[in-house]
Amino acid sequence: MKRNHGMKRKLLLAAIAMLLTIIAVAPVHADNAVKLRILVVSTGEVTEDLGLAYIKPVLDEMGVPYVVLNTRVQNLTPAFLAASSQGTACKAEEAGCVGNYNGVILTDADLIPGFTPAEWDILHNYEKNFRIREAVLSGWPATYANSKPPHDTYLDYGLVYSSSGHNYDARWTIPGRYSKEVFEYVNRNNPLPITSLAFATHPRNDMNRLKDGSIPYVEPLLRTGQGEALLSIVRYMKPARKMPVREVLISTVTNGSFLLHSKVLAYEFVNWATQGVFIGARFIHLAAHVDDLFRTNIQWNSALDKENGTYRLTGADITNAVSKQAALRAAHPTAGNFKLDFAFNGAGAVVNPQAMPLAANWKDDLVAAIVANKTHFRFINHTFTHADMDKSPVPADAPCDYRTFTNAEAIRAEITANQNVWALLDLPERNENNRVLITGAHSGLKDQKCTDDPALHPAMFNLQADDIAFDAGGANPLLLQAAATAGVEYLAADTSQKAQNVEQYITQYEDGSKTDRLMLPRWPTDIFYNVTNPSQLEDEYNYLYYYRFVNAGQNPCEAQARACSPRSYREILALEADTTVRHMLSFSRWPHFFHQSNLARYDENGSTLQFDWLDAVFTEYEGLFTLPVKNLPYYKIGDHTAESLNARSAKIDAIWNRTTNRVTLSANKAVPHLRVTGLSGGEIYGGQLIGNISVDTKATMYEVDRGLTR
Amino acid sequence: MNVGDRQVFLGNQEEPEGIPGINGIRLSGILLSLLLVFSFPGAGGAADLANAAAEKTDETAKTTEQAEDENRKKTQQVNDLKLREREALFPEQAKSLAKGYRETAKMIVEQGCDPKPVLDAAAYFEKQSGEF
């Protein structure tokens, strides 16, 4: 792109550079302070800008404050970036001048047509003056010179286009000096498949300068098999200075929230731009909930293509699960002390569910095995009998596929009776878990309108078609009242259901309490509740996602699962693992839920669907990441979610003074648990320090520690 | 309903009981080595044979690894596509991206360079925006 100015000019510039080396003086930074906040420069709203739609949920999930500048409708001015108390633009070297952002993310590399050469100058001057980094999410590796004389270059990433493609096996080539600073969390030994359009480039690394005299020096971090750069650090060097005047991380790969490679790269765009010091944090989570412990699940019958027969776990299944869990931890270094969570229904663990007081059924080998091995697992209240909590039909005697409760007290009894069984079996962490509830089949959060059994409604292809969703008034207020009076704070939801895929306080229903229940979504999987072995799963999966559509004259390839042909168990597991890893890489805490049938031992090696799934997930994850996986109990997931929601609703003021290397923090309200990355004294995770800080209206100072020596 | 050959994925299989090293894969390895010894009499001695066997094993492992990588990528692409289809905003975003690349192409022409790569990118995203 750049005009050829010839050898003479290069020699002249080299001579000037040598002279500057001798006389250069480092700039003075009076306050040298910036707010901990990111500027995201976009080409449009989320509806138009794929990059903004990609990075916004990442920032939101991590709790990172940011401001979006939409170049389509807004102009960038110096005062937008740094202003005095009078509102006029100021420079870092002026006393009292604080930069508004400690990092810049561009959703597109050249920001055409919204960004003018003058705006590029304003942005670059801010980055240089306040020593702020920039991350570019995607786009053309531009080198643009002004159209008017002297045709000086205002934008140059130092890259030359080489090829385009959307199928690269990219290799990590992170230089040693960046090994503690960028992409510390990825498995650099494995290729990263790139599946969207990318411009592959070569670093130019010549002496061509931008208008400010800086020369881009490119170091690729991710390359194609042919050695072309896909993701690079560009350091803008001036001969007189050892340190770069500006630093940019540029990706020429298209990124979107639905792309796996984008999920792998996402964190570093934030981490790089902020120099590893920012409000917010990210952790990788995985929890597996095994629902319906002590119950009997109906089984899928492959010969009949419908449910027939039952399965209930045995004591041998539980001891097998203990060994499989130990084997999982041993095989996967990131799994740590991973534990399964059992959501249990105590009616199946007592001698007589109707008799009061309740008595544990010690003769049941499942009950005995659970109690003998209780320290290996965690437990969650799943109600006493797994009763349906949906609204009653109107009128009350209308036909309904399930029985319903007509008062809150009966629902409350379902919750408290299970708490009593918890005590009878002396299962661990009872008090902590009294605050948590998973209703049977997540019932009570939508109205199924009494259609639940496919056999009773052969004309309905989709039984959920008539459901009234949570946000449309479908939840049962009686359940919410009962939960409130029973002391439940966290209520499980199903992410596959409308309006249940959001962690939210349930404010729209009156439950008679001063506080609101917090909805905690859980991910369903395609390891169905009614299968114990691979052939059963394979059969039901292909019936539901392939043959059912073929039989109805529909194209299964165009349906939700995109099953263009029947899938093998191995293929189903691979898809499950890929999907789950995407959930994990979104930094969400949401657990995945299964059912007790999935823990049945199905062969002489002790294999189970549940541990096949876990092994596949960890294998896939460890192919991409090295970060330890957090496996939290559900009540802690609730606590952390509540803390995050509180922090997100606060206005946090954070200023990083680079001279003292301290951050001053305050908020407009009490935030007892604010996660901040890059402050000393926090938890070490992925080579960085993550603090859990209590902040209020009073300003407090914290030392910065970027963790670069760890 | 029959769904064809069943492929069962066995995670964390334990070593079968019996004489250590004479079971499963290890036994196959020994048999392969013996076969090679008797197939190439006097061809450079045991070291060469061991090298040949090791190379073959490496080659097989490489092929398996490549096949696994390919399968992984295919799986990834299925999910990429599935998730992209669920993104209600994607067609509009792809359209905007294509429009942006057409603008970039104009700039590249102004700079005296070849706009073909970005025009191709524009066409790529136009096609994607129209697929829904």
Number of helices of chain B: 4
Uncertain segments of chain B: 1-44
Mean pLDDT reading of chain A? 93
Q: What is the helix fraction of residues of chain A, given as a range?
A: 25-40%
Mean pLDDT of chain B: 68
Alpha carbon gap, first and last residue of chain A: 41 Å
CATH topology title of the largest domain in chain A: TIM Barrel
Number of beta-strand segments of chain A: 32
Biggest interface reads: A-B, 77 and 53 residues
Biggest beta sheet attributes of chain A = 9 strands, mixed
Region (Disordered) (chain B): 54-80
Keywords (chain A): Signal
Signal peptide (chain A): 1-30
Pfam families (chain A): Agd3_CE (PF25115)
Description of the molecule:
The complex is a heterodimer of chains A (710) and B (132). Chain A is of the alpha/beta class and 710 residues long. Chain A has three domains: 6-279, Rossmann fold (3-Layer(aba) Sandwich); 288-535 and 577-624, TIM Barrel (Alpha-Beta Barrel); 657-710, no CATH class. Helix content of chain A is 26%, strand content 22%. Chain A has 14 helices and 32 strands. In chain A, the strands form eight sheets. In chain A, strands 3-2-5-6-15-14-13-10-11 form a nine-stranded mixed β-sheet. In chain A, strands 4-1-27-28-32 form a five-stranded mixed β-sheet, with no helix packed on it. Chain A has a four-stranded antiparallel β-sheet with strand order 16-29-31-30. In chain A, a hairpin with a 5-residue loop joins β13 (215-223) and β14 (229-237). In chain A, α2 (50-62) packs across α5 (260-273). Chain A is globular. By secondary structure, chain B is mainly alpha-helical. Chain B folds into two domains: 20-86, no CATH class; 88-132. In chain B, α1 (24-39) crosses α2 and α3 runs antiparallel to α4 (116-130). Chain B is elongated, with a radius of gyration of 27 Å. In chain B, 17% of the residues are buried. Chain B: Residues 54-80 are annotated as: Disordered. Chain A: Keywords: Signal.
